[in-house]
Amino acid sequence: MSHKDPIMASTSGSMASGMSRVLKEPKTSVISNGRKRIVSKFTDDSEMLEEYDVVTDELLLRKSRKQTAVGGEGPWVIEVGTEARQGNLDRDLIVESVGAPQLSRQDTAEEYVYKIRNLPYKKDVFEVSVEKRSGNALNSIVVRTSNKKYFKVIDIQDLQRGSIDLDAANLSWDVKFDTLTIKYKKPMSIRIVEAQEKKERATIQSTRSGGPDDGCKQQ
């Protein structure tokens, strides 16, 4: 295979970035500040960046972006984890209140886990369900409050791209300390794929970027 040939995205991107996506070039990996940073570029001109803990292999951040209609780089969309926001007065005309509800995702090996912070309501005010929304082929997780102060539709991107529908039996949730935690049990097919992805990550040659804790061996 020449370096110009498209490469089928073996599954560290298959469930994460689409079953049919094709890599434009081999993935690159850089270790910096205790994180393995893997970049995947696809033939549809989209790009995905993932960061894993070097020691535990926990996924700390996943974000992706697509090319704009005029050929420029689109904004990064965070799917997993969080990162510090950088102020940009030209683009961010509205600054979100510190007390506004904040949604983040941080998975475990067995579950997709979403946390919505700054929701100061009792548990009996919430309704969390699996529903098929108008115009959608697949189910979504829907959050409502009886006081009509909050409404949110959550799609698990990994499953959406794999055309795997949600099952209400796999959904659980709880409310503590003004935080709504939603858990969805990963299908066995996903867990098998993620086990394959872990093996693949171990084979990607990494370079190291200078940092105070980058004295670990190259992986």
List key phrases describing it.
35% strand, mainly beta, four-stranded antiparallel β-sheet, 219 residues, 2 domains, Immunoglobulin-like, six-stranded mixed β-sheet, disordered C terminus
Nutshell version of this structure?
The chain is mainly beta and 219 residues long.
How does this model look, in words?
It is a single chain. The protein contains 3 helices and 15 strands. The protein is mostly beta strands and 219 residues long. The protein folds into 2 domains: 7-82 and 189-208, no CATH class; 102-187, Immunoglobulin-like, CATH 2.60.40.790. The strands form 4 sheets. Strands 7-6-5-4-3-15 form a 6-stranded mixed sheet, with no helix packed on it. The protein has a 4-stranded antiparallel sheet with strand order 8-9-14-13, with no helix packed on it. It comes from Bodo saltans. InterPro entries: DPCD. This is Protein DPCD. It holds the Pfam family DPCD.
Sheet with most strands: strand arrangement:
7-6-5-4-3-15
Helical content band: 10-25%
Number of strands: 15
Number of self-contained structural domains: 2
- Ranges where pLDDT stays below 50 over 5 or more residues in a row are 1-19, 89-95, 213-219
Number of helices: 3
Main beta sheet: strand number and arrangement?
6 strands, mixed
> Beta-sheet strand percentage?
35-45%
Distance between the termini: 24 Å
From the alpha carbons, calculate the radius of gyration and give it in angstroms: 19 Å
Question: Which whole number gives the mean pLDDT?
Answer: 82
Give me the secondary-structure category. mainly beta
Order of helices and strands: EHEEEEEEEEEEEHEEHE
Shape: globular
